[in-house]
Amino acid sequence: MEYTQITKITDAEKSYYSSELKALAELWISKKEQLKDSDEYNLFLKKMQREWAIETGIIERLYTWDRGITESLIEHGVDAVQISHKSGMHRGYAENISNIIQDQQQTIEGLFGFVKGNQSLSEHFIRSMHQELVAHQDTVEAQNPDGKIITIPLLKGQYKKLPNNPKRSDGTMHLYCPPELVIDEMQKLIAWHNEYDELKIAPEVLSAWLHHRFTQIHPFQDGNGRIARAIATLVFLKAGLFPLVIRESDRDEYLNALEQADNGHLIDLVKLFAKRQKDCILSALNIQQQVEKSGYAEQIFSNGLKLLQAKHSKRKAEIINVYALANKLQNALTNKLKEYEQTFDESLKLNNNRHGAVVTESKHDDEEKNYYFRREIIEIAKKHSYYANTKHYKSWSRLIINTDSIFEIIFSIHGHGHSDNGVMVISGFTFEKDISEDKEDKNPNPINIKSTQQDIFSFNYLEKEKEVMQRFDEWFKESFVIALAEWQQTIT
Question: pTM here?
Answer without folding.
Answer: 0.84
